[in-house]
């Protein structure tokens, strides 16, 4: 990844205080039996707030990217809600569709985390939204990354991405998936222990014996022997790979349209 791209992605994460890095502890999160579906725009400040909470709750979600100008999933979202507004959550476990980021966050806490007293509103919510807008601005030099649709070829099956929301390396991959309107299962990779913080080489050197407690971290370690994101799995081609630059090249070559 180019140095400028990495720097602006780090600035975006910093603008949000690195929310979407660590999983909540102390309260049990209940995993949904069927994967939630999120109609999402990567660059949208309101969508970011929802993805942060999904990451911190360690809940996986099927992302249907709905970039501006996109025609693959935006019509479905419009049919469901009656408005072109994102994020839009569908929970197949309850049959409910939820619009508005604050309502979605309240819904997630109510149904999937045994914690009371949370509110996605008020002054704290306004501060969070301002930070999310700043994060979008940090990724908007020249163009707004992850906002507008680009020509692409639709995959037969959704892709799969291991990522955590604040990861500076994962963000460009999610932006490109959005621009290409490629549906993907987002395997949230939030860190559940302080020993997991920092780059992989630090963890492997100083905390190699620290137990891994996150289900997706355990799964990826079993698959690859590594705990590193982004990691893309494409069931359409049986390709699996690390490294954001290589992943983005693959996506453009495989699904980018003329």
Can you give a write-up of this model?
The protein is built from nine helices and eight strands. With 258 residues, the protein is an alpha+beta fold. The chain has one domain (3-255). It has an eight-stranded mixed β-sheet with strand order 4-3-1-2-6-5-7-8, sandwiched between helices. The model has no long low-confidence stretch (mean pLDDT 88).
Give the topology, please.
Layout: H1 3-15, E1 36-40, H2 45-56, E2 61-65, H3 74-81, E3 88-91, E4 96-99, H4 101-112, H5 122-138, E5 159-163, H6 170-179, E6 184-188, H7 200-206, H8 215-224, E7 231-234, E8 239-242, H9 244-255
Helix pairs in contact: 1-5, 2-4, 2-5, 6-9
What are the salient characteristics of this protein?
9 helices, 258 residues, 8-stranded mixed sheet, 8 strands, globular, alpha+beta
Short description:
The protein has 258 residues and is of the alpha+beta class. The protein has helices spanning 3-15, 45-56, 74-81, 101-112, 122-138, 170-179, 200-206, 215-224, 244-255, and strands spanning 36-40, 61-65, 88-91, 96-99, 159-163, 184-188, 231-234, 239-242. Strands 4-3-1-2-6-5-7-8 form an eight-stranded mixed sheet, sandwiched between helices.
């Amino acid at each position: 990844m180019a140095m400028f791209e990495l720097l602006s992605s780090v600035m975006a994460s910093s603008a949000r205080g690195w929310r979407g890095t660590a999983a909540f502890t102390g309260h049990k999160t209940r995993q949904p039996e069927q994967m939630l579906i999120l109609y999402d725009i990567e660059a949208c400040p309101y969508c970011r707030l929802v993805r942060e909470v999904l990451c911190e709750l360690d809940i996986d979600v099927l992302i249907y990217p709905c970039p501006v100008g996109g025609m693959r999933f935006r019509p479905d979202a419009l049919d469901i809600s009656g408005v072109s507004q994102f994020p839009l959550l569908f929970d197949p476990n309850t049959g409910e569709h939820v619009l508005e980021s604050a309502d979605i966050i309240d819904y997630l806490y109510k149904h999937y985390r045994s914690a009371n007293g949370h509110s996605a509103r008020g002054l704290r919510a306004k501060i969070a939204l301002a930070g999310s807008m700043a994060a979008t601005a940090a990724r908007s030099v020249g163009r707004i990354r992850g906002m507008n649709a680009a020509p692409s070829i639709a995959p037969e099956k959704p892709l799969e991405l291991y990522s955590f929301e604040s990861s500076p390396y994962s963000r460009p991959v999610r932006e490109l998936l959005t621009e290409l309107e490629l549906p993907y299962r987002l395997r949230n990779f939030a860190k559940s222990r302080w020993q997991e913080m920092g780059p992989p080489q630090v963890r492997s050197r100083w905390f190699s014996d620290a137990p891994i407690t996150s289900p997706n971290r355990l799964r990826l370690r079993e698959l690859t022997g590594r705990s590193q994101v982004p990691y893309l799995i494409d069931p359409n081609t049986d390709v699996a790979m690390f490294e954001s630059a290589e992943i983005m090249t693959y996506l453009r070559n495989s699904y980018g349209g003329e």
